[in-house]
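User: Could you walk me through two proteins back to back? I'd like the raw sequence and the structure tokens for each, with a short line separating them so I can tell where one ends and the next begins.

Assistant: Of course. Protein one, sequence then structure:
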Amino acid sequence: MEPQQGRANRLPAEAVVRIMTIFASIGYLAASVLLAKVVPIFAGLFKGLEVELPFATGILVTHFMWISALFFGGAVLLPIVTEFLISATRRSLIISSSAFAASAASVGLVVLVLYLPLFELARKAGQAKESR
């Protein structure tokens, strides 16, 4: 009976791993969709404003489809890795939690990188107003 009791205690931890993996995959898919849908809109805006893009924004606007594909690949590979390749529950939980944090941070980072030229444009407009 003791082995079954040990297995019963482990089930909630496995459920938490699966839930974290699902949330991380959803985060990666959201980042992928964000890149695929929003970046072309901002690229058109930057082209119309004729603003010199910061390095990070230029890289994102130029290579957003590859980055989006990497996020989509992360959403596909993460459940496979945590379910089949890593047998230890604790390691799977650490990997899933880290992936969830990375997916959440990446969405915020993409938004920040897209707004960098607009921040610079607002700063220049403020300086021009003060110099009058």
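----
Protein two, same layout:
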Amino acid sequence: MEKKPQVGAWVEETCLQRGMNQTAVAKATGMSRTALYRIFKGLSNPTEASLRAIANAIGLPSDYFLQPERGQQEVKPRLVLEIDLPNKLELSEGEKEMLRQRVRAFTRDLLKLIRVSRDRREAIKDSEVRK
């Protein structure tokens, strides 16, 4: 079986940039976590249907992963927050804006941590290869 890690890594990184981990993508697409893991790690070749389903689940055009040149483009992060506030809770417009600002700040901080973590993993891999 031909291993295609670059496609799987691109799909995984794009999902993470869009704020969705493997579990969330599996739930949104109806795919198993095992199938997604195998795609992300390059252990299996994704079908066109699975690439379309993943793209749709993370809010990208369905043909996004079918166009390799898009792998070079920066994907704007999207954080999906599910907040279930009881109907009894009423917020003023000022409180809503303050909540929005805090969510934006949290999102920025979280994305910075993800980038730092990814960069550190790559640096560790590079140092291990050089040994």
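The chain has two domains: 1-76, 81-131.

Let me know if you want the two compared in more detail.
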